[in-house]
Amino acid sequence: MTPVQAAPDLRVNLGGIAMKNPxxxxxxxxxxxxxxxxxxxxxxxxxxxxxxxxxxPTRGNETPRxxxxxxxxxxxIGLPNPGFDGFVKTYMPFLRxxxxxxxxxxxxxxxxxxxxxxxxxxxxxxxHGLEINVSCPNIKxxxxxxxxxxxxxxxxxxxxxxxxxxxxxxxxxxxxxxxRAFACAAEACGANAISLINSFPALAIDAExxxxxLANVTGGxxxxxxxxxALKLVWEAARAVSIPVVGIGGIFNAxxxxxxxIAGADAVAIGxxxxxxxxxxxxTVRGIAEYLDRHGLARxxxxxxxxxx
Length: 309
Ligand code: RRO
Description:
The chain is α/β, with parallel strands linked by helices. It has a single domain (about 10-60, about 75-200, about 225-300), classed as Aldolase class I (TIM Barrel, Alpha-Beta Barrel). The protein has eleven helices and 16 strands. It has an eight-stranded parallel beta sheet with strand order 9-8-7-4-3-16-15-10. Strands 5-6-14-11 form a four-stranded antiparallel beta sheet, with no helix packed on it. It has a two-stranded antiparallel ribbon with strand order 1-2. The longest helix is centred in the C-terminal third of the chain and has 15 residues, at about 280-295. The protein is globular. The protein starts with 11 loop residues before the first strand and ends in a 15-residue tail after the last helix. Ligand RRO binds near residues 52 and 133.
């Protein structure tokens, strides 16, 4: 009799967050959960990262906020959010029903605001980690600079680290001179993991009207166009740190995700694909398991960082 091969072990420990598989959904592309609950089984996700939360409710940018380019999505949503109280009251009772780690993406306009929103989440049941959004390309003040100025970046990560008991995951901006400096700074400041990349600052123009396609003029580019950029930055960052890395950028199927794992990501997050195909994360989980099986790998960790370069 041929021995029955055990199913590959997909479990990942993301800096203290125990995940049943390495496939997460990226902040801003999956709402706060209920928006997708009728379409997919949320319990199959490795983790869910919710849209960015601030101390107070905010409205976001004027429309149009999105524009489809040849190979990616340009957005300038501008961080609309229900505020800390609104999020905890409206969404946490829903999210607590699921057996999926909830990672809350947080943002502020000042270092103190980041620290305060982080502190408030200490008392919220059912939150497993905080992703620090220092890399939104779409608000006039603050956030983009926190992601591209190393000193400001350190100050935010330090302040959040000092105020929270939860694992913290700074989300890195792609438009920096040396991604390794930001990855290492995150680790030195006590981050438990890093995620990268956020969308890439970009511009789309209507030649007839000579106007920008977005009300905000510029936006962040995501989707297939940025995947090779993201792979390169993940590969560089993962070799520079020993904390876990979440790879993000244009993942539309299991093969894309597997490329990020090979580049050194311990987990991946699906972003833009959720808008057109909400089942992408679940299909990606199945595809990774099938790949590991086919390649005789017992654990997903056996694939991480195996680029033959
Ligand atoms: O809300 C947005 O415009 C936005 C954010 Br917070 C972000 O981090 N990345 C992005 O592409 N858009």
